[in-house]
Amino acid sequence: MINIAICDDIEEELEIISHYVSKKLKELNISFKISSFSEGQDLIDHISSAKELEDIIFLDIYMKFSNGIDIARKIREFDKECKIIFVSSSKDYAIDSYDVSAFYYILKPVNEEKLSNVIKIAIEALNKENKQIIIKNRKGTYRIYYKDILYAESKARVVNIYLKSGEVISFYSKLDDFIQSLEDERFFKCHKSFLVNMNHILKIENANIFIGNDTTIPISSSNIVAIKERYYNYLLEEM
Q1: Would you say 17 and 57 are in contact if contact means Cβ atoms under 8 Å apart?
Q2: CB within 10 Å: which end of the chain, N or C, has fewer?
Q3: CB–CB of 14/6 below 8 Å?
Q4: CB of 37 within 8 A of CB of 43?
Q5: Which ranges of 130-197 would DSSP assign to H, the alpha helix?
Q6: Residues 126-183 pLDDT 10s
Q7: Using an 8 Å Cβ cutoff, are 145 and 132 in contact?
Q8: pTM over 0.85
Q9: Angle in degrees, 0-180, between the axes of helices 112-129 and 11-27, rounded to the nearest 10
C-alpha cells in the first residue's frame, strides 16, 4: 500500500489534489491511504508520531502559518527517502526545492494530466527503490534492497556485497551469475572482479570509480570509454 500525505491550507486545492491522486492510483490498481493536512505543523506532528512513513507528500509552499520549504526541511529530519512534491502558485522556490531533495515541483492551478503523470513517475521510482534480492549463505538468509547495494566484489568464487550500512554479505557465486540475477540497469560490471551500483557513484576519474563511502573501484583499462559513456547516459535517463 502507498501512503500519501497532502498539505495545503486552501481546502479547495486540498480536495482537488486528493481527487486527482485517488483517481490515478485507482486507474493503476494500487492500494493507497491519503492523509490530508491544512497546516504544515500538523503534517510534521503526524510524521513524527506515525508508525508508518509517508511514501509521497504533496506540499504547498505558501501557507498561512508556514513555508513549505521549511516544513520539508523538518520532514527530512525524520525521513530521507519519501517523495516530496511541491505544489505552488509561484516558481520562486523551485531552486530552493533542490536543497530538500524534492522529487517534483508543480505549478498551480493543478492540471490533472500533469499531476497524473507525476504520480506515475513517483510510483515507478518507489517500485524501483523497493526492488530486492534474497541471498543465502551458511549464516542465514538475507533480504537485500537494491538501493542499499554500493558495489560487489568477487574473490575466489565468493561474491562480497557491500551495503550502505557498512555490512558485507558474502556467498558462493560467480559475479556474472549475480549480475544476471539482479536484472537491473543501475548495476554494471566495471572490472572483472567488481560490480557497481551507479546510484552511488560520486565521480569517475581516470581509471577509477569513486563510491559514496570513500571507496575507490578500478575500471578495466579496455572499458574506460564505454563505462564513462554508460554512466553518462544513465544520469541523463534519471534526470
Answers
A1: no
A2: C
A3: yes
A4: yes
A5: 175-182
A6: 988 889 999 999 999 999 999 999 999 999 999 999 999 999 999 999 999 999 999 8
A7: yes
A8: no
A9: 60
Cell numbers describing residue 213? 563511502
Q: Give the three cell numbers for residue 78.
A: 525524520
Residue 73 and residue 121: Cα distance in Å, rounded?
A: 23
Residue 173 neighbours by CB under 8 Å, 6+ apart = 157, 158, 159
Q: CA 91, CA 194: separation in Å to the nearest integer?
A: 43
Find where cell 485507482 sits. 26
Q: In the chain, which residues fall in CATH 3.40.50.2300?
A: 2-129
Please provide the distance, in angstroms rounded to a whole number, between the alpha carbons at the two ends of the chain: 26
- DSSP code at position 30: -
Strand, coil or helix: what is 119? helix
C-alpha cell at 119: 504520480
**Cβ atoms of residues 54 and 79 within 8 Å:** yes
CATH topology of domain 2-129: Rossmann fold (3.40.50)
State in words which class domain 132-238 has: mainly beta
With b for 16 or more beta-carbon neighbours within 10 A and e for fewer, the 134-166 pattern comes to: ebeeeeeebebebbbbbbbbbeeeebebbbeee
CATH 2.40.50.1020 domain extents, the chain: 132-238
